[in-house]
């Protein structure tokens, strides 16, 4: 039994770094920011520089602030690490928990002794430098900067009609879910604002939060000069905030090696197990926009692994619809806190690395709680596409081992449970109804142009702009009546290649 206990994976150190530069002189290169987090995590674990240098595994989470030719080398060299294994992750907000779970599996199998997972962004520094007209004097980039294109989640007709970024796609999930579950659009806006206000209250008491204020639900729901429309129904306070310089590093080893390093037991947090699954990559192939079979499967298996809904939750919150869906699966009461860190709007959203920040706040909360406290970390990637949950605790897992995820089996079950998505019609013509939609702001910040995903009479799906936006917008943004299900006519323009939906009446 002693050997089994010694092989248990534990987190022994974690640290977040937040900086808020206002001038070019205060900016920080991403690799320096990540290295600062690694050094702080080692200090949190009580490791010396020599002990940190012996780490044999380094995972760097995909970052967008700079295009390094060798991201792991750029970080590792700054902290004098020469790991035998180094990896740069794919894109996705699910990556931090996936990497921690993979590190736990490796150390449990004896394939690694000391693993470091680190991520972050210097996007605020990039903005400050850009505003000042200053070119970053950072490590030479591996190639010219390229725009972020996450997979093929919005390929083809969606992109052509203006659905490109997450801020334009997540409203489709939000409004479809509101129409299915809320009595009125105003009720839905209030509910989403209350979710965000709950996140903000947590962020206000967490050190390092990017926005440590706590706006009220009314302030979050109402657009104004400080809280502009981003994409209806989302205001700025409902969207992930990537204008941050934030990094996070976490150190994983075995219980036995932690004791050999002199780490106190009350500083260790045990990793119990993980669960992951993905949804259809192309958003236009989804069976529904109101729910997610992948989220449900991941969270239900995580709860089973934990023996019930854990004491502390971190439910990914790039936009309100994701924690709403997750909380519904968990069946937690409305007053329950859905985050330990404060969410991607108010704590800060360093793109793919937020869940690393949340994992380190969870580490501190579990250390404080002690005894048998458990925590759930749930991350989401791309367009509600990739999902991963990690169960952690102040106590060892009941089964005595970290439960490695059998994701292929779960994925087969998810795929079998989901209805196939409808046929996509690129040249729609005839009677149609709105399945979901969003309204995008114009140059002046006012809502100006609508995009709908709709259905034809035979059930085929299409994407279209909306005719006569000025007349249609009051209908689409009415606080009293949902526009999902609104009837009309859609036409395809062979010259432009675009589709136009005209509401009836």
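-> sequence recovered:
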């Amino acid at each position: 039994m002693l050997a089994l206990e010694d092989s248990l994976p534990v987190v022994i150190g974690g640290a977040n770094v937040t900086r808020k530069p206002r001038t070019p002189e205060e900016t920080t290169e991403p690799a320096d920011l990540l290295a600062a987090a690694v050094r702080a995590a080692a200090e949190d674990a009580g490791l010396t520089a020599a002990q940190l240098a012996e780490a044999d595994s380094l995972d760097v989470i995909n970052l967008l602030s700079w295009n390094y030719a060798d991201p792991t080398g750029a970080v590792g060299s700054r902290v004098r690490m020469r790991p035998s294994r180094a990896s740069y992750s794919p894109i996705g907000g699910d990556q931090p928990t996936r990497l921690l779970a993979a590190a736990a599996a490796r150390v449990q199998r004896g394939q690694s002794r000391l693993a470091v997972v680190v991520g972050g962004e210097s996007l605020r520094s990039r903005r400050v430098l850009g505003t000042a007209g200053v070119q970053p004097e950072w490590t030479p980039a591996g190639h010219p900067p390229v725009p972020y294109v996450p997979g093929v989640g919005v390929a083809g007709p969606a992109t052509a009609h203006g659905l490109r970024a997450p801020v334009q796609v997540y409203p489709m999930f939000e409004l479809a879910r509101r129409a299915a579950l809320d009595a009125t659009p105003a009720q839905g806006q209030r509910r989403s604002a209350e979710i965000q206000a709950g996140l903000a209250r947590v962020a206000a008491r967490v050190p390092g939060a990017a926005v440590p204020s706590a706006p009220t639900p009314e302030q979050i729901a109402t657009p104004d000069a400080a809280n502009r429309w981003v994409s209806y129904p989302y205001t700025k306070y409902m969207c992930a905030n990537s204008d941050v310089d934030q990094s996070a590093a976490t150190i994983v080893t075995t219980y036995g090696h932690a004791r050999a390093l002199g780490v106190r037991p009350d500083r260790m947090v045990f990793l119990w197990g993980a669960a992951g699954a993905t949804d259809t990559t192309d958003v236009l192939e989804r069976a529904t926009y109101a729910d997610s079979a992948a989220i449900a499967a991941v969270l239900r298996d995580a709860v089973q692994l934990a023996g019930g809904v854990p004491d502390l939750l971190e439910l990914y919150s790039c936009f309100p619809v994701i924690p709403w869906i997750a909380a519904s699966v968990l069946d937690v009461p409305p007053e329950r806190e859905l985050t330990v860190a404060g969410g991607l709007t108010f704590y800060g959203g360093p793109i793919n690395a937020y869940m690393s920040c949340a994992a380190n706040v969870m580490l501190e909360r579990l250390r404080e709680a002690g005894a048998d406290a458990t925590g759930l970390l749930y991350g989401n990637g791309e367009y509600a596409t990739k999902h991963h949950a990690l169960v952690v605790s102040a106590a060892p897992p009941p089964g005595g081992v970290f439960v490695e995820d059998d994701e292929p089996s779960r994925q087969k079950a998810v795929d079998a449970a989901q209805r196939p998505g409808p046929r996509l019609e690129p040249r729609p013509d005839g009677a149609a109804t709105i399945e979901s939609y969003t309204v995008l702001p114009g140059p002046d910040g006012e809502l100006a142009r609508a995009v709908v995903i709709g259905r034809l009479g035979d059930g085929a799906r299409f994407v279209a702009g909306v005719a006569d936006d000025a007349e249609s917008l009051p209908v689409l943004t009415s606080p009293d009546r949902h526009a999902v299900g609104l009837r009309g006519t859609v036409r395809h323009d062979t010259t432009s290649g675009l589709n136009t939906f005209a509401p009836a009446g």
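Residues 207 and 446 are 35 Å apart (CA to CA).
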